[in-house]
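Why does this matter for the project? Reviewers at the last site visit asked to see concrete outputs rather than summary tables. In response, this paragraph embeds two records directly. Each consists of the residue sequence and, immediately after it, the corresponding structure tokens. Nothing has been edited or filtered.
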Amino acid sequence: MLFNVSGMIQEGIGATREYDVEGALKAPDGEPEPVHGHVKLLRTKSGVLVTAHLSLSEPEVCSRCLKPLMEAVSVDFEEEFQATVDAQTGRPLDERPDQDAFLIDSNHILDLTEAVRQYREASLEIQPLCRRDCKGLCPRCGRDLNEGECNCDSTVIDSRLAGLAALLEGELSND
């Protein structure tokens, strides 16, 4: 998601541009993820303020039953991209931008890719679910409990008393 902001920078502080975005973002697995939404650019004293409202579809895995799912992710952010060169002369600026700032390159290209990636990661569910009432997998046999019950013993033993339970089972088998 590249934007050439050279004309906007020449116009001066307060210049704006608005774009509808339809594109793809490279996912961590290398597959392109569709991205769509709206981006507004506003020229500031030190660069360009980007206001973005984007929607993505993120491939995920249910944290309970491990089935694949597509998670709809809404990414909204406002970030200032700082210029690295003087708009009039093309020379590098004497004052270097903050090392963590998003930058406009020396050709006046503003690349939203890294900002969208970072905000996407922050917006993802920590434990995505295929549905709210997902029962998950049986911890003993691994059966998907959404498809039906399993035949495992469902007696719950407090892990702090497991040693005593084992002794009790040994006494019962000696009788």
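We now turn to the second protein, recorded in exactly the same manner.
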Amino acid sequence: MTDKKIPAGSWVQIETTILEAGKRAEHLPEETKKQPLMMWVKGFLEKDAFIGEQVSVTTIIGRKMEGKLMAENPPYRHTFGRAIPELLSVGSELRELIKKGGR
């Protein structure tokens, strides 16, 4: 836990265990079965709290969720991956085709 109290209404991320490691499906690979199934949710904090505490949040669509407070103002970490060289010229090639009447 940190010393900073995060105020109610802050945009935060929580973590919740969906299934403990021993309760995972049998058909999963061994390495996967050894890990709990986790869920991370972002939402607005209901009450003031510290990182690491159990809290309640309201998601952007209004769903109430509970879990361990992990981060305040969490960043988005997803990307669309690296550029695909073959696709870089598609836009300019298409514009040229349109100029020529599609021939």
